[in-house]
Structures are given as structure tokens and as C-alpha cells.
Design brief:
Mean pLDDT: 84
Helix content: over 70%
Shape: globular
Low-confidence stretches: none
Radius of gyration: 19 Å
Oligomer: single chain
Distance between the termini: 11 Å
Number of helices: 12
Structural class: mainly alpha
Strand content: under 5%
Order of helices and strands: HHHHHHHHHHHH
Length: 290
């Protein structure tokens, strides 16, 4: 069952990535957009808390929720920034390295281990990702937004670990997500207000900027995929291995890669095609190991 939840997270986060890439190419206030993304998550989570009678059982639950909010604030900001300055396929690949960090820290923190077959499947997936990564011409003088993709990967890894920690504490899902999205909304709202004066000055010199209402509404729409993905991945963490859940949900980069090829017309090299095929084989190996 955890695989189904992880695959659902893959689809939802893939859709979120596509919409992030699309909006990153528009003249919008990024912080206002992401405020909308998190605000709708906060509303839905709060309603879920009431309907399902979820609650917080102590400061540990609240702290994990706030940590998730901070991690999501950083990760989503870095990801959207990366898409605005770099090639969509490159940013998605680098941000997809999250499970490598998750696997390492899950072993250090909780001594989680994998079977031999699962470990083989895991490294097949990331062998494919690295094949794609090395097909890109990245250097210190030409990062192509790579730094933002890597920072997003680290931040999403922190989020996955905190999501797993919430399940170890047996925290109620919607209570945790209410804290997460509420704190994330607050951070993006503050960032928007702090930079609002500068944005108003820039908008005054150009009519191409989206209105505040349109930007916020678009954020609300993207937020639906975000909150659905979070519910799915926390459900997967509750019953599955941390590293494997992170590995499968991290396959959302393949959805973004297909979008970048079909819609954005970004060309794929032979190495990228080999990498994609290898990554899919890794998922099959993981599935057959259960």
C-alpha cells in the first residue's frame, strides 16, 4: 500500500513541478504565489483536522510541524527560483537527488536498512539519475541554476525526514500539516510584504506583471497538488521504508522531464534517454522486491 501512496505523491509533486516551471517564466511575485500555495494547504489541513478530529499531543508534534513548514518554505522557494533561471530538465534532475540524502540520514538517525534487492533497485534509480546529470554541461563558472536545484534537494530531504519523524511520534497527519502549511504561509507572507514596495516600483515600470489577485489565485491552484502530495507521502512514510518512499516519490522528476521534452521542446541527449530508461528499471526492481 505504501507504494501506491508514494506513486500518488510522485504524480502530485510532478504536477506541482510543471506548474512551478510554467509560472517561473512569468513576471510574478514569487513570494505571493507561494503564499497562495501554502495558504490553501493550510485551509484544507485545518478543515481535515476538524473533520477527522485530529489534534496535537504535545510540543514535539508542534515542533515537527513547524520544522516541516520551514523546510517547505526553503525547498519550494529554491525550486521555483531554479526553474526561473535554469533548464527545467536540469533543475528537476538535481532536485530529484533528495533520496540520496534521505537514505544516508535515515540510516544514521533510525538505523534503517534495505534488503540486497531493494538496495540494488535504489542504486539503479540513482544510476539513471546520475547518467542524466553528467550529460549536462555544468561547471563552477556555468552553474545553470544547479545550485538552486541542489539546495532544493537538501531542503526536500529535510522535509522527508521530518515527515517520517512525525509518523514515529504518531502525530495526527492533518494536525502536522496545519502547523506546516500555517508556518510556511506566514514565512512567505512576510517575505512578500517585505519585498512588496520593491515589486510595486518594478510593476510601475512594466505592465507585464501579473496582478496580485491573479498571482495569489494561481498559487491556490498549485497548492492543491502540493497538499495532496504531502498527504500521500506522509501516509507512505507511516507504513513504508523512508529511503524507498523518498526514492519512488522522487521519480516525479520523470514527469517534469517528459513535460520539458514534449511541451518545452527541450532536446534529450542519448545519455538522458539511457538515464530515463535506467531509472524506470530501478522502480520495477523495487516493486518486484516486495
Amino acid at each position: 500500500m505504501w507504494i501506491i501512496f508514494a506513486l500518488l505523491a510522485t504524480v502530485f509533486f510532478g504536477a506541482r513541478g510543471i506548474m512551478y516551471q510554467w509560472t517561473s517564466q512569468k513576471k510574478i511575485n514569487r513570494n505571493l504565489l507561494l503564499f497562495g500555495v501554502f495558504f490553501v494547504g493550510f485551509i484544507i489541513s485545518a478543515l481535515g483536522t476538524v473533520v477527522f478530529e485530529h489534534t496535537w499531543y504535545g510540543w514535539a508534534d508542534i515542533t515537527v510541524g513547524l520544522a516541516l513548514g520551514f523546510g517547505s518554505f526553503a525547498a519550494n522557494g529554491f525550486l521555483h527560483k531554479g526553474f526561473s533561471v535554469g533548464k527545467a530538465s536540469l533543475i528537476s534532475i538535481l532536485s530529484g537527488l533528495t533520496p540520496i540524502f534521505v537514505l544516508l540520514f535515515a540510516f544514521l538517525l533510525w538505523k534503517e536498512t534495505l534488503t540486497v534487492i531493494q538496495l540494488i533497485g535504489f542504486f539503479i534509480i540513482f544510476g539513471g539519475l546520475y547518467i542524466i546529470r553528467y550529460s549536462s554541461d555544468i561547471s563552477l563558472s556555468n552553474l545553470q541554476g544547479a545550485q538552486w536545484g541542489l539546495l532544493a534537494a537538501l531542503s526536500f530531504a529535510f522535509n522527508d525526514l521530518m515527515g517520517k519523524q512525525s509518523t514515529l511520534l504518531e502525530a495526527d497527519t492533518f494536525a502536522t500539516l496545519t502547523s506546516m502549511f500555517g508556518f510556511g504561509s506566514f514565512l512567505f507572507a512576510v517575505s512578500w510584504l517585505v519585498k512588496r514596495k520593491k515589486m510595486l516600483a518594478e510593476q510601475g515600470s512594466s505592465q507585464a506583471y501579473w496582478s496580485a489577485g491573479k498571482t495569489f489565485s494561481c498559487g491556490l491552484l498549485i497548492g492543491l497538488t502540493n497538499v495532496a502530495g504531502m498527504v500521500a507521502i506522509i501516509s507512505a512514510f507511516a507504513i513504508g521504508n523512508t529511503g524507498l518512499v523518498s526514492a519512488i516519490s522522487g521519480m516525479n522528476i520523470l514527469i517534469i522531464l517528459l513535460y520539458s521534452r514534449i511541451i518545452l521542446k527541450e532536446s534529450f541527449t542519448r545519455q538522458e534517454v539511457i538515464g530515463l530508461t535506467t531509472a524506470f528499471l530501478g522502480v520495477i526492481v523495487l516493486r518486484l522486491s516486495f
